[in-house]
Design a protein that fits this description.
This protein has 517 residues and is α+β, with helices and mostly antiparallel strands. It has 20 helices and 14 strands. Helix 4 runs antiparallel to helix 12, helix 9 runs antiparallel to helix 10 and helix 14 packs across helix 15.
């Protein structure tokens, strides 16, 4: 991960000190000489010695295939991340070098179900890598916890918000938010003749999370009404993108955070702190998501109030930014694949006569097409990239390869999801790959969008519930037509991924009340 890692840090330091001192020869009268010898030595170190070491048989990853530039420096991966194209570039690396590729001086990427099981799976899961230290808020948050025992204790608290009962309790809030979305889609179309889904759907997603988890106390007014003048959606995405990029220059992270101007990018941390304080001040107005963490049952572990800000940050990014991006992807896929839009509408029309009443929306779990459409959209548009894990002291064997202690390993989600061997015709949007004998079959293939094992996504049931309700209500009540000039290939080529999915192209549509035949 880091520029100085790759097993070379001790070697680097000793070499540096020894060569600068040797050149200086103890001449106390000329300290500036020491400075210039040191500068020359540091440059030599970075330009010659470190790369030579990283390419040498003394380096633990010598045997691993990968491009020379990646073997000597983390900079290529940093560059791809800054451009939001890591998922595409890592796929290209695997196409060229095979199922195992060295992507950085100390990082190896694997592409196989067996490696998923070794790296992330329950029994053998490796620890989270130091990339998870890239945050500087006070308090301890689930997402950033690396120690498995501490993590498991906090996870028990979070799990309470995602029990079947808890999720059923969010149903009315979710329905009300989609009703609000529908009004907003119609109003923006009426006002401007069209509406940009890239802008509106993430606003909807933040509003929905605010209602469901914060009883609406995180921010006010709603982003769909205000059009987000404080740029909450954009700031969350920028925050996520910066964190992802900094994982490649991790040793410089804390230094970077002190640079004037960079701190302003952490405005999102302040939003999270204010959201937590507001919830604590006002309290829940129903059994909202956060209220489950402060359960009054004395036998249950509770969250410390001091940890709420960092957990609020996880909620706003992990729970809202993700669903926002996936909502755009799923609607885009339906517009780009009218055959599947028609199939989904048919399924919904057969299930409901007219727009479904709120209570009817509780029974969408068994409908094959709506669930398969979501699963397929998550395959092609998974928001999170590779999730780095750390090889323990003893080293480990993955796919028959020995990895030395301290190596960062991962399975790149985007590259895995378009692997021909596991997903034939991988770039084709084909929900039928998730349907078996007329039923939704999520385990027909291995989807990695929510990761696997002890650190997997705690919110996945809520994701499906929320997106199913959105699709069912919107498609039974509205007609959505792309505006003239809709270019599916161009839109999809503009998808960028840096832990957050962003879109360089707008998705303009016209929305009208549905004309029923
Ligand atoms: C489409 C939507 C979502 C996707 C694709 C997604 C994906 C993921 C993935 C891949 C991870 C593992 C991250 C890692 O190991 O670094 C994760 C973790 C997590 N997700 Fe999600 N997520 C989504 C929505 C949500 C929602 C709605 C919530 C909460 C409201 C949520 C809360 C979390 C939390 C708290 C973690 C950390 C879990 C742990 O360490 O135990 N996510 N998510």
């Amino acid at each position: 991960m880091g520029l100085l890692t790759g097993g070379a840090a001790p070697l680097t330091t000793s070499f540096l000190a020894a060569s600068a001192l040797a050149a200086w020869k103890g001449d106390l009268t000329n300290l500036s000489k020491l400075a210039s010898y040191s500068a020359a030595t540091v440059s030599g170190m970075f330009l010659v010695v470190l790369p030579a070491y990283r390419l040498s048989p003394f380096h633990g990853l010598y045997e691993y295939p990968g491009p020379l530039l990646h073997k000597i420096s983390e900079l290529p991966m940093l560059y791809y991340t800054l451009r939001g194209i890591t998922h595409l570039k890592v796929r290209e690396l695997h196409d060229k070098y095979g199922r195992t590729v060295q992507t950085g001086p100390n990082s190896v990427s694997f592409l196989s179900p067996a490696s998923i099981s070794t790296i992330y799976g329950s029994a053998t899961a490796l620890d989270k890598a130091s990339a998870y230290d890239i945050q500087h808020m006070d308090g301890a948050g689930l997402f950033f916890m690396k120690d498995k025992a501490t993590h498991a204790r906090r996870r028990r608290i979070w799990n309470r918000s995602f029990s079947d009962n808890a999720i059923a309790g969010y149903h009315d809030e979710v329905v009300q938010c989609v009703e609000h979305l529908i009004r907003c889609l119609l109003k923006r179309t009426a006002d401007n003749g069209k509406v940009d889904l890239v802008k509106l759907l993430p606003q909807y997603s933040f509003d929905s999370l605010n209602s469901v988890f914060f009883s609406g106390h995180a921010f006010s007014p709603s982003l769909m009404d205000s059009d987000d003048p404080k740029r909450i959606v954009a700031q969350a995405a920028e925050f996520f993108a910066i964190s992802e990029s900094l994982t490649h220059i991790e040793p410089l992270f804390h230094m970077t955070m002190k640079i004037p101007g960079i701190g302003a990018l952490l405005e999102f941390e302040k939003i999270s702190i204010r959201s937590a304080e507001s919830w604590l001040r006002n309290g829940p107005s129903f059994a909202d998501g956060i209220s489950h963490w402060f359960d009054t049952d004395p036998s249950q572990p509770k969250l410390e109030a001091a940890d709420l800000p960092i957990e609020a940050e996880t909620l706003l990014i992990g729970g809202a930014d993700t669903i926002g991006g996936v909502s755009v992807s799923v609607v885009f896929q339906l517009l780009a694949n009218p055959k599947w839009l028609a199939a989904l509408r048919k399924e919904l029309d057969e299930q409901f006569e007219g727009p479904p009443a709120g209570h009817q929306l509780r029974d969408l779990d068994d409908l094959p097409i709506i669930n398969a459409v979501l699963q397929e959209s998550l395959r092609l548009g998974a928001p999170l990239p590779g999730l780095p894990r750390l090889v323990p002291e003893s080293g480990t064997v993955i796919d028959g390869n020995f990895l030395p202690a301290g190596t960062f390993v991962s399975v790149p989600i985007g590259a895995y999801h378009v692997d021909e061997e596991y997903f034939p015709d991988p770039h084709v949007f084909d929900p039928s790959r998730w349907i078996d004998e007329g039923r939704f079959a999520p385990s027909k293939h291995l989807l990695l969008a929510f990761s696997a094992g002890p650190f997997n996504c705690v919110g996945q049931k809520l994701v499906f519930m929320q997106l199913r309700i959105m699709l069912a209500m919107v498609l039974t009540q509205l007609d959505i037509t792309p505006t003239a000039g809709f270019d599916a290939a161009k839109f999809w080529a503009g998808v960028r991924n840096r832990r957050t999915t962003t879109f360089t192209e707008p998705l303009w549509v016209k929305v009208t009340p549905r004309a029923r035949k």
